[in-house]
User: Fold this.
Amino acid sequence: MKKELKGVRNWFLYFIRTFKKGDCLTKLCFFIMGSSNLLRGQIAKGLAFLAAEIFYLYYLITIGLSSLAGLATLGTKQQGMVMDEELGIFVVQQGDNSMLMLLSGVVSLFLTALFLVIWRASIKAGYEAQQIKEQGKRLPGLLEDICTYFDSKIHRTLMALPLTGILLFTVLPLFFMILIAFTNYDHEHQPPGNLFTWIGLANFKTILLSGDTISKTFWPVLGWTIIWAVFATLLNYLGGILLALLINRKETKCKGLWRTLFVISIAIPQFVSLLVVRTMLNNDGAVNALLRELGIIADTAFVPFLSNPSWARITVILVNLWVGIPYTMLITTGILSNIPGDLYDSARVDGANQVVIFFKITMPYVVFVTTPYLITQFIGNINNFNVIYFLTGGGPISLDYYQAGKTDLLVTWLYKLTTGTKKDYSYASAIGILVFILSAVFSLISYRRTASYNREEDFQ
Amino acid sequence: MKKMLMLLMVFLVVLGSFAACGNKNEPTGSNSGGDDLNGGTNSDEATPTQAGSTEVTDVTLKVWAPQEEQEILKQMCETFKAAHPQYNITFDYGVVSEADAANELQKDPAAGADVFAFASDQTATLANAGILYPITLNAEAVKDGNSNASVQAATVNGQLYGYPFTPNSWFMYYDKSKYSEEEVLSLDAMMAKDLGAGVKNFSVDINNSWYISAFFFAGGSTLFGPDGTDPTNCTFNDANGLAVGNYLIDLAANPKFLDDQDGNILTAFVNGSLAAACSGTWNAEAIKEALGDNYAATKLPSIKLNGEDKQLSNFADFKLIGVNSQTINPIPAMELAEYLAGEECQKIRYEARSIAPTNLKLAGNPVVLANPAVAALSLQSSYSTLQSSIPQMGNYWTPAEAFGTEILNGTVTKDNIQQKLDDMVSSILSTIG
Assistant:
């Protein structure tokens, strides 16, 4: 953390240092980008920097400044309707659209950040040109400069496209959506008819502390999310290891056949098996019909696999085993065949039985290798949208909750908040941020404490 | 010295380029969705065309309709185009169902259709979000031509926001061989009849808030006050509501009752193990096929509460044609919407797809009444309760569904029902924060 902060400080300090060290041309290029290169003979390079500056200033004057001002207010003028007597219709008085203003504000912030990076690059290039001149060397021409991008700077060339893609399609939208959490963009403030505005941390207060319907929903749903993640992860993990051990035993015949059988459940798309199970477990589904036929339950009764809260919670955990165990089995199979056989031999010579061997040799080895996998699985299960959505849809919904059901995880609940009848984007965004904090804190703490992180050189 | 001169020159060049920018100080087209953040653009607002002017104006209209309607939609639009020589219209058709229209429009109203079909339960949401254009052209003719309930469903705060074209509600289908016309008048009589082992007498989707309300309205409870405009009032938990709740518990526990889920009524009708079920015209074809000659439909039955027969009263929902407030051609768009929801098009829809009309002339037409499902829908519509169009209505669906779910899974019992009803009502009336 300290290192990163120092890096940021140095990044900005660079400007001051260079300004002190530079000659008058380098100083000038702080204001007129590229001038140092231009006047020392690197025409193309200088012009490119100058063009970037002109473009940015032009953008700022035409759109940028009003976008940034709009980002601060998120709109002041509401859409109105004025009756036009002559035409006999209302004429729409276009108002401000808060959402589009937020978006264009975010875009202008990004362009400003990009400009800062280019500005620094231009200063750096200007100062380098000064240094090369001072050393009495010849400045590289345009072709030589371009060639370096396929030689010593090839990493930049290769990274340019993926980086642009990530910035445009991931980071920018993400930033925009994070900002929504600090506004009141909910079902009562829908553009274009209404404005929404900045309200700071009020959404987080409402969700965590208010004791209103939404916070009465948040804590129980969070509790269930963690219970689900713990059970789903641990049971899948243990089940997978046991299955792998069973198949790996010397006495087991046709190992390939067994593995194939279990892997087939991976071959079927997850949502297909989940939807099939959902119809099977209905109150009048195949499983209940079978139980009736066998006389286990009365002719009109049913086991409420998915319609009773406690049953449904147990059902989703069990069905998830069907989907998850084969993956762990595959991973552990590889690890088990890696354990040195002489460890087992010496254990047997010392008179250890199967149970002791399992707990003293097999488990430590497997746990050591798979802890990072376990953490990823746990975080994945906190956000396990598929299983819950396809199996119960979060149901059975409950009177105690706001737009949520008894098997809803935070992630499916926020899905309902954004796509349901209510468009509570701000709350959903706040919940998303809370989930992220939860996952990030948990994974950082646990990962740093794992043996595989601290003692990487063991087991080599 | 030479350097200094150079410097000065560069400086002048840069200044000059700024001055050049300063001169043409008009916003270029938006590049980031930030179009024109300081009020209305004048370039965007085409002057609305005067009805009756002689010159031909170019108009582009984007029209959304569900998949099943695309073919007749194109015919209807072409007819409209021929009838209005003063416009040179280019149509842009999109496939969006009535249920999804509101969602799609809320994503980006400016990119949405100019004219679209949507379900009336979305009227309030869309009107409050400023997406629906208030209808003022020929509004009186629209109000007089269609059934009163349908006009009410399209009205928010006294202002018409859409053109109704079909009722979208539910009634009862039944098997003629199992019930007489007399028996289907009372649900209690239906449930009392023994139809043999393995046959269910009646099915309704109890854990669906759209259906469960019919029981509460039958008992005389109100949602958001008698006229549906009071967001702080709901009487589902009064003495009437309590009687209804107990009735629902008994109904759900009755072995002859089948809860409608995942289309199980169709299978049950096909194999003869169900005598009556509640659904809408969207299932008419399938149920007709399943029941064959025994196919029949009628209004919803009455239920016995505290010894009195009370008629089940469903939500009066409709499908409407709306106009997007962001449209740049409001008048042609309104004229098209009016035509698409008018008598002529309602007739075309009825003939092509058995869509029931809201137009008063058509609804009384004997040809239309010959279709059992459409007739049942019309018959039931006089017993319907208007669905509230206030924003708070959005809060009704989930708690009511939860109540139905808890009745079915036995969480609600006769001991805790009052508590559960109170919970439901407080959820319906709750505000987030």
Notes: The CA atoms of residues 3 and 9 of chain B lie 10 Å apart. The two ends of chain B are 70 Å apart (CA to CA).
